[in-house]
Task: structure prediction
Amino acid sequence: MRIALWHGYLLAGTGSNIYTRQLAREWSGAGHDVTVFSQDPDPARFDLGGAATVRPDVHGLLPVFVLDEYAGYEVKRVQDCSRAELDAWVAANVAAVRAHGPVDLVFANHVLLGGPVAAACGAPFVVKAHGSELEYSMRGNAELAAWGAEALQGAAATVVGSEHIRDVLAEICGTVARVVTIPPGVDVELWRPAAQGEARRRLVAEAALDPPNLGNADDRHPDEGNAERLERFLAGGRPTVVYYGKLIRNKGVQVLLDALRGLDARAVVVGFGDYRAELERQAQGLDVLFTGALEHRHLVHLLALADVCVVPSIFPEAFGMVAAEAAAAGCPPLVSDHSGLAEVAEGLEAAYPPALRDLVRFPAGDAAALRARIDRLLALAPDERSALRAAARRAVVERWSWRSVAERILAAAGA
Result:
């Protein structure tokens, strides 16, 4: 089968970027002829399973849901673009897909602008709805909501990652036919448990390979000198808490920092975003290391050595991918009790020993409750800790894998 896998953004990072990479790898590995359409300037650095890549010429405009810097682009929020700008951007992407030749299926990320792109390509199509476009751009915007709903009418399937996003999609776009819930996957071969000492050594070794980032001028790359900083910070056996994701207010890192006060623990905060400076100010007096953005080659080792990974988002999330990745690495996650995060929590709780099932989630925004749960996790006896780590990984292996996600999407498309 010839598949056009369309993604309007980069391939590095988290969320829909990872989703695209993993589907490309799984479908290519299954023998399909896959072409990835993205704005990534160097897709060859990723394992796409041999998929071909195309970078459509979008004439310098990049409509986004959350403002970030993208070198070489005029970056505007989708809702801040004129309809003429959005139509031209969609047309440029459609032209790129059509120029590649006939395909059997178009798979597109994001209701907007992936839905209009896929609908205009002249082939059967599936759209993956993500929380980002729904919550940050389409909610409260009647014109964008109507456009998204219209685009989905002809889809063979609209894929949502959780029941929460199914409900959000209905709230914003109204009744959408052929909606299928398929939770995202986790690369269980990449995210694996490891002995803490070995994981620490490998993390430092990976950080030593980072390119220079003088003055941390590029916030999408690791901070300068991370190898030495991490080696020094992670020395000794003090308990380690990890956060990784965007550094924006909605991700709730400030709740974690508040929760750390009074705990005998250190924390590593990974990510980039416009809230970093404020978070660093709030972290004064705490034992916290900000690393800048890290890649999976770092994170697999950081999670393996961590005692707990906190996902403190105060805004709805489509799915708890960070929590699932941490669990696969044997690091117990603690998540805010809402939206797609709660659905991941349910899966973990089902696998946990009964006496420890209250150590998966906490009321969103409640720093005191989060502090109490971290304290209990860090106080577990070695045998309890081992049982929890094993149960966390088992839950991911049994419930979420990219191979099953890829197969279920094609089945939903009738392919």
